[in-house]
């Protein structure tokens, strides 16, 4: 991650870093692709019983000005992931990123490239495929719980696809949200490519980082609530594939997010009762004082007031992450909350270990498209397959328990299935 990215991450809602899943990070091959050959990567298979479908929509909020581009309405891109009737054939799998977004994400100086330090232009991001069939009809069978997903600061909504597809394969409808002008890039159907405004903002002299991060958190909460407002209307949206609108159970909505998305998940839970449960994947809930004095600034209201509904904290072993005891925002949230809550920390992990970085970056490293040092900084030394399995299992267990009423008891305490997960309750 760049120095600029680290400055953002250190202050609050975690900067974005992400990882991959095939083989241990330490096993980095010295040889890479041949001349002119781009590195290739793939996502791990979903583990649930259902094939997965996906569709994408643009949403425009005519009642709200864009927080980063005053004078224009707020535009968002969302994708829906859901159980479908038939698995996608190899040549029919939806792309991980649309071409314009993939080209920018992999280019020199993009927020994605700066944060993850992969070699610019060395990876075929457009060639990565999901396991989902685009615009497939929804699987019949009644209403299904809905989970919103928010990526980390600077990350596109696609950066959590491995987790999202897995939830959809288990019977959830998952809605992923791109936070326009904050994400590295957002591609719209009309050809507009909205790139992040943060490099320019972070270069301003005398920048109040705490104020900027508070603004970012509020923008994400507003984006999430705008999407919640629109979900009911999607029942009548003719752009949706057959049967999808009818499968949305808006009485059972949860949210999971990574980094700034995890912070937004808990803050939105505090602000909006429509969210019944939330998972925070290593997103901080405290602000650093811009004068460097170390004086604690007011915490977000989610931490100050606590939550009355269930939440799960999943920390990493980054220096300012881990157990709720080590983070003032997490600690306040823990003390003030009356709803069910638990905390787990993945041993050997880093901030990107709960994202697709955990499955993609090790593959790029073996092909020489990212250095071993940068790989370890992003995902630590936890075996990628273990990190992916643990993330999927704990997130699914949580939502199964609180949105479906099915308890597999994984969250009751330390589990022999995942000895690398340090559990606190």
From TrEMBL:
Record carries keyword Hydrolase: yes
Keywords: Hydrolase, Lipid degradation, Lipid metabolism, Signal
Signal sequence extent: 1-29
Gene3D superfamilies named in the record: alpha/beta hydrolase (3.40.50.1820)
Family annotation (InterPro entries): AB_hydrolase_fold (IPR029058)
Entry-linked Pfam families: PAF-AH_p_II (PF03403)
One annotated GO molecular function: 1-alkyl-2-acetylglycerophosphocholine esterase activity
UniProt GO BP: lipid catabolic process
Name listed for the protein in its UniProt record: Esterase
Organism (species): Kitasatospora xanthocidica
Source organism phylogeny: Bacteria, Bacillati, Actinomycetota, Actinomycetes, Kitasatosporales
